[in-house]
Amino acid sequence: MTPFELAQPTSLREALSLLSEDGARPMSGGTALMLMMKAGVLRPTRLVSLRRLDLSGIEASANGLRIGAMTTMRELEQSADVQRGWAVITRTLRTLANVRVRNVATVGGALSHGDPHMDLPPLLSALGAVVTVVGPDGERSASVEGLYSGYLETTLKRGELITEIRVPLLSGRRAAYLKCTTRSADDWPALGMAVVLDDARREASIVVSAATDRPTRLSNVEAIFKGKEIDERLLNQAAEAARSVDIEGDLHGSAAYKKHLIGVYLKRAVNEARNAS
């Protein structure tokens, strides 16, 4: 790694000021950032640690779930509030990397990294989650889905930080997230599939990842489910439509392999969501 300065601000205002200079990068958990620096992909001259900022915590209310950006994956996984109201998040986190990584990696860091193999972005996108972003131009809100513009590319502007994530109440909706890994269950996925079913409205929210260069909403599949009772015929039609999305091959699987997986895992995730409590 090239030499760098480590700054440890104690206020958000100070952190934003330090990030305004060329070569500065924010660091939350640092699990992905350190690997990229060791590989020479990133060569920041200054790392701005966010550990001393008051940006952690989990709060469940009648308005939904609020997650501070510096909340670790492990804290989110172990939260009783999350288990009660958003059990799909708890289930997803149990096979996200390993416990050593989850003890350090933060929710905000995972969302801002932009790697399409991450498990939380597709699930939070399907759930309709929104992030609060603070930067030189003030504060703004953005959907989790709207954070991504390409492989390892986000819509975050220079000097902007995610400060919190808000997840709506499920309110009778049922959700599932499934991933296919080619090695161990906690490995990077070849494909991730998030499904949220709204039985009252007969609507579905479906987001795929890892097989695409960013978390991608399957709008054509959602249109097939809209207003209809889900049966085997409809599932087969939806699975075929899902395969029309642009697929990215990588070391976890070829494009042809993932094109097959997307139909299989769509059907499995829909059925798991239908059976979810």
Describe the protein in words.
This protein has 277 residues and is of the alpha+beta class. The chain folds into two domains: 58-167, Uridine Diphospho-n-acetylenolpyruvylglucosamine Reductase, domain 3 (2-Layer Sandwich); 174-275, 2-Layer Sandwich (Enolase-like, domain 1), CATH 3.30.390. Helix content is 34%, strand content 25%. The protein contains eleven helices and 14 strands. It has helices at residues 12-19, 31-38, 73-78, 80-85, 87-93, 99-102, 107-113, 120-127, 219-225, 232-242, 255-275; strands at 5-7, 24-27, 46-49, 58-61, 64-68, 130-135, 138-143, 148-150, 153-154, 161-167, 174-180, 191-198, 203-209, 216-217. The longest helix is centred in the last third of the chain and has 21 residues, at 255-275. It is globular. The model has no long low-confidence stretch (mean pLDDT 95).
Task: Give a nutshell description of this structure.
By secondary structure, the protein is an alpha+beta fold. It has eleven helices and 14 strands. It has helices at 12-19, 31-38, 73-78, 80-85, 87-93, 99-102, 107-113, 120-127, 219-225, 232-242, 255-275, and strands at 5-7, 24-27, 46-49, 58-61, 64-68, 130-135, 138-143, 148-150, 153-154, 161-167, 174-180, 191-198, 203-209, 216-217.
Query: What structural category do the secondary elements indicate?
Result: alpha+beta
Number of helices: 11
Query: Which stretches are poorly predicted, pLDDT < 50 over at least 5 residues?
Result: none
CATH fold name of the largest domain: Uridine Diphospho-n-acetylenolpyruvylglucosamine Reductase, domain 3
Strand content: 15-25%
Query: Rg to the nearest angstrom?
Result: 19 Å
Instruction: Give the mean pLDDT.
Output: 95
Sum up the overall morphology in one term: globular
Largest sheet: spatial strand order: 4-5-10-6-7
The residue fraction in helices comes out at: 25-40%
